[in-house]
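Recall that a protein's primary structure is simply its ordered list of amino acids. Everything else, from secondary elements to tertiary packing, is in principle encoded there. The following example makes that idea concrete.
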Amino acid sequence: MLQATDLTKRYDDVQALDGFSLEAAAGEIVGLVGHNGAGKTTFVEMVSGLLKPDGGEIRIDGRTPAKARDRIGISPQHIALYRSITVREHLRFYGRLAGLRAPALRARIDDLAAELRMTGFLDRPAGLLSGGQQRRAQAATALIHSPGLLLLDEPTAGADPETRQALLEAVKRRAGEGAAVVYTTHYLHELSELQATIAVASHGRIVARGSAAELLDGLPGEVLVGAADGDLKVTTTDVTSTLLELLGTVRGPVESIELRPANLDDLYRSLAVSDVR
């Protein structure tokens, strides 16, 4: 579905993208993570056609972004809604731009409103919505035409639990229907819930790519043993063996045991540190 190869982009003295390559297959959710300034938003804007690369190539179903606009749905990092018009009017506008016509468009709006839990504020101006409601409305503008490629840039930033859950369920459903999804986030636990593959960006390029299991293999976790004679905490790549060794050293009663395998936060920290070095 999406193939981006060796993308470069420079703003004066800032190299925003420096050989950025990423692929997303139909039905795949790619979790794109990285520090601020790693190039995530620049990449999303480039794939959507809002920016042109200085170098490299982007293909969406074999077409350039300019020729594949009907296949793309984008929810930008910053809210981009018209404050004076309602959510329903937004969806009518974006639906018509995508070629949808009544009554199919009316049915599509009603379905999205139910899915994203927007029925109660569908006819409310965007300027009167809460932050979470705006996030759901923004995502709905990306989903209205059932695109084959979804670009979601920090879609749950600052969102309430209801909004976050509604959006995650919608993303999983679209991937299940065959859409390719690029999902940028700082909330790494969301990628676990989405069962996403991971792409880690740093300094304008992808520095790690694979499943969570592949990328976490070999990273150290922690063993924590709470005992009457003192607490023990050890970082290790083999939590089970380390636990058995620690239990052999404890003389008093064991009050608590916690095994924490390596997680995506550990992965990101290890890659960020190694890339800086």
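The domain at 2-214 is CATH 3.40.50.300 (Rossmann fold). The chain has nine helices and twelve strands.
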